[in-house]
Amino acid sequence: MSSKKKERGAPMPASSAGLLRFFEDETKGVKVRPEIVIALAVSIATLSILLRVFLPT
Asked: 30, 32, 50, 53 — which has fewest CB within 10 A?
């Protein structure tokens, strides 16, 4: 067996209940930075408040 194959096949340490390999998995879907999500949430909340103030029903 080659040394490269041995290194790849070696098991990961069991510390942190397997969280060491968590970031190696690729997930499908849209990747959005957290700053953008927070900015959008604040923008929508502000817009909602402004609409209630300036367009009362």
From this structure: 30
Q: Which amino acid is at 16?
A: S
Tens-digit pLDDT profile for residues 12-45 = 555 555 555 555 567 788 889 999 999 999 999 9
**What is the rounded CA–CA span in Å between residue 18 and residue 20?**
5
Could you state, in order of their start, the residue ranges of all structural domains in the chain?
27-57
- The pTM assigned to this predicted structure is 0.50
A 10 A CB-CB count for 7 gives 8
Helix (H) or strand (E) holding 28: none
Q: Which residues of 33-51 are buried (b: 16+ CB within 10 A; e: fewer)?
A: eeeeeeeeeeeeeeeeeee
